Amino acid sequence: MDWEEVKTFRMVMKVGTVRAAAKQLGVHHSTVSRRIEQLEKSLDSRLFERRPEGYFPTASGEDLARVADRFSEELFAVERHIAGRDNELTGTLKVTMAEPFAVAFFADRLPEFCDAYPGLDLQILTSFDLLDVARREADIAIRMDNNPPDALVGKRLFSYYTSIYANPDYLARQDFENRPEDARWIGWSEHDGRYPDWTQDSEYARVPVWGSFASMTLQVQMARAGMGLVMVPCIAADGVPGLVRATNRDPVPSRDIWILTHEDLRRTARVRAFMDFAETVLRDNRAALQGILPD
């Protein structure tokens, strides 16, 4: 069996459709289909039932998935072990972090790290998803999480803070006291409901939530355009033209900021170097992360 075919098979098992698997793997959907067909041919067995709504594993597919998962875990363990023995400040280093962190804090500071370690091929993956460090999707994860995965090790720094923001003209048009139903929060999730818990400790508890917009950047721009209230990290909205804090209350602590890696990688020189650098950058920006405005 070809390992690329097996990886493609596992991705289709995970996401359920050829197009979704192709997007995750960064290949054309025809490549995914071809690899699955070649794998089925080499095994002389049908691995999926093709249906309009997606690919569903056959009994043979489920058997292969169990074996492939075990093999994959062993392969990733070997890769981590080998990478963990590498003390050279060269090679590729993959770091995942939320885009606001990358843009607000790291972009201007990366030249000093790259100048100090010119042999490193640094890759910054901006995502709010916790990419799987155990599977080498990333070597280091900078994450906002009160309960990071047990398989990862690292350092908890401090909490970031959130506040409520809106366009000042939007605030001036609303009668929050007598007609709160005419205003709206910009929603995070379709599962929020109209009056979710995250709004109830604010002075806008009677304002309903509208819509579902999972992108923080999109929420900030919608609020800037006068479409409603948002509750976002201070780093995402403080100083944005057209936005003001819509509350007299102090910002409130949210999740902890962690710098994480896998146990097998924590003593690798390039991983240690970036984790130390990242801690310095984040501590230098603690005031902004906690919503402390300059005098």
Question: Could you explain the architecture of this structure?
Answer:
The chain is α/β, with parallel strands linked by helices. The chain has 3 domains: 3-84, Orthogonal Bundle (Arc Repressor Mutant, subunit A); 91-158 and 255-289, D-Maltodextrin-Binding Protein, domain 2; 161-253, Periplasmic binding protein-like II (D-Maltodextrin-Binding Protein, domain 2, 3-Layer(aba) Sandwich), CATH 3.40.190. 41% of the residues lie in helices and 21% in strands. The chain is built from 12 helices and 11 strands. It has helices at residues 3-15, 18-25, 29-43, 59-84, 99-106, 110-116, 168-173, 197-200, 216-224, 234-237, 269-284, 286-289, and strands at residues 48-51, 54-57, 91-97, 120-126, 140-144, 152-166, 185-186, 209-210, 230-233, 244-245, 252-262. Strands 3, 4, 5, 6, 9, 10 and 11 form a 7-stranded mixed beta sheet that branches. A two-stranded antiparallel sheet has the order 1-2. α1 crosses α2 (18-25). The longest helix has 26 residues, at 59-84. The protein is globular, with a radius of gyration of 23 Å. The N and C termini lie far apart (64 Å). The mean pLDDT is 88.
